[in-house]
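lol ok so funny story. i was supposed to be doing the assay writeup but got distracted and ended up predicting the structure for this chain instead. priorities right. anyway since i did it might as well share w the group, maybe its usefull for someone
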Amino acid sequence: MTQSSASIAVVGAGPSGFYAVDALSRARPDARIDIIDRLPTPFGLVRHGVAPDHQGTKGVTRQFDRLLAKPGVRFVGGVELGRDVSLDELRAAYDAVLIATGCGRDRRLGISGEDLDGVMGSMRFVDWFNAHPDAVDLTETIAQARHVAVIGNGNVAIDVARVFAKTAEEMAKSDIDPRAQAAIAAMPLETVTLYGRRGPAEASFTINELNEMGRLARAVALVDPADVANAAAPDGDPTPERVRKQKNIETLRGFSANAPGAKPIALAFRFHHAPLTFSGENGRIIGINFADGFYAPADLAITCIGYDAIVPEGLPAERGRIANDEGRVRGLPDVYVVGWARRGPSGTIPTSRADSFAVAERLVADLAPSSKPGPGGLDALLATRGVATIDTAGWLRIDKAESETGAREGRPRVKLASWAALRAVSNPA
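and the output, tada:
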């Protein structure tokens, strides 16, 4: 029996969305697939979340660009679910809707002083140095900071601390926003301290990222020897996880032998320190009080404790994510969800690939023939509302402009950092 052409809307152009498109286009090469995103650019956290000095991780976008070149696959940028089009309207236009919007809000600690100037979530800081068009300029906020506190014991905390601690020369081949790099380089920085509420065996660093902290030109990695003297990975951990934890502990033991003052910046790892309150003066953070009675001066604090999904209207929410049963959104038989929006902010890009492939398989199995208008229906609707979209060709113009500027400056790219600049380049008169 011959299958009729299917239409699928994928909302969210990050890695989870693209991996789903990969699986969907392989299973149903006849399908018309629109990748809808509120930003003028695709790739989500690969563009705006992955650390700018880790260009190898960003190489996955080459695979995503090849997907955009497939017949029947379109990028539709500048379109926000809930603002420009509703979920019900997408369901009326497409045979299936797949949500891949990730987690767009910093999780809060919920302690006193969290709203002081100089205290912020990692997403706010990372958006700034990664040239997100919605980012707030933090130049004045960080300008006088000598003591930076990074709250968290995962790779986001490592990334944030490393970006502070690296020299301009070490960041020269990255795609960090040049304005952010200049502001960080100008800081009178003395200490960058990562605080974790649990011990070194519970830290979720990956070993390559942790090892890199010991090779920085101007920062010496420090650990209290007492924190690692008797640390060991729990016997109950699965073997790969136990190996990872044990390698981390060995690296941290190596850091504990380093001499304070060996380099201009002290890059310290402090364990068993749960923040209790942020202390302030004249509305600005000056220090952190911890549950164990410890106090540390800090004039900048970045919390790296996870994210919550911003659940679009019309979708059920559950524990900071979209309520679903193995990717099928509860109560909505033609709506699916992948990635962090489905499972919460856990896992890496490869994790998202496996997740997206599994959900795409379920979606394809559920697809039924229909006569819904698909992409043409969306185009007609957006035209009546005067929504100016950015298509694949528009993104390629942005990519070309950024890459050419980067080549002139010896960088992979220099990102266009404002909505006006992105739109102007994507749709030249």
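The chain has a mean pLDDT of 94. The chain has two domains: 7-104+308-390, 108-305.
back to the writeup now i swear
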